[in-house]
Protein: Merlin-like
Amino acid sequence: MANDALLRSEETADLLAEKAKIAEEEAMLLAQKASEAEQEMNRLQVSALRSEEEKVVLEHRVRETELIALRIAEDSERRAKEAEELKEQLIKAKENEKFAKDKLIELTRNPLNDTLGSETKTEQKKEPQYGYPQFNYMTGDAITNEHLRELDMRLEHEMSLSMDSADNSMELLSDNDVEQLSREIEKERMEYMEKSKHLQEQLSELKKEIEVLKDEDKETQYDKLHNINVEMGETKYSTLKRIKAGTAKARVAFFEEL
Structure:
């Protein structure tokens, strides 16, 4: 009997020693897991700070992109207004050129006809009653030369004014051709549309990145692990049941798997 009691006592002591050892190992594992959890928490905090900084940088980039797009729109509107003014100047220059040419043609024709007509009428008045003209060659030559000189001076003056107006119009026309101006306007419009499209795409990408960062800020690493466990059917109650149902070695193995 004494031997049996001694054996049972030794077995009990061994079991208690084993349990104590297991408890110590469990405590060490828990301490290790707590340290790892603390390190993970610190890492997440640093990551959150970095994400916050990145979000601020992205928001700043979005504001800069919006300002650039606004400046491009204002510049495009200003250029369109300048192009419209140039078109109006060009149309006015063409009208001036046409007017100058018509005036020049009129001046080169009408004064001579008017002068000749007036001379003809004057000489017709000087004809005698019987229809025989009385010519005074000396007087006739003097009158004709005087009229010709006046005609030359008048033509020279009018042509000078007309040519000055035509020259000014031609200068505008040579510098600003309608077709060339239209091509330049169309080119600037296409460039503006391309820049606007590119900026809009960049703006959309930046906004998407900001939304992703905001979602990541709302969902921590532990939330992600929780969602994975829920998908696998793991809850805190099922975990506690597994811990209680297993042996000491099974519990140690479970903690090692964590």
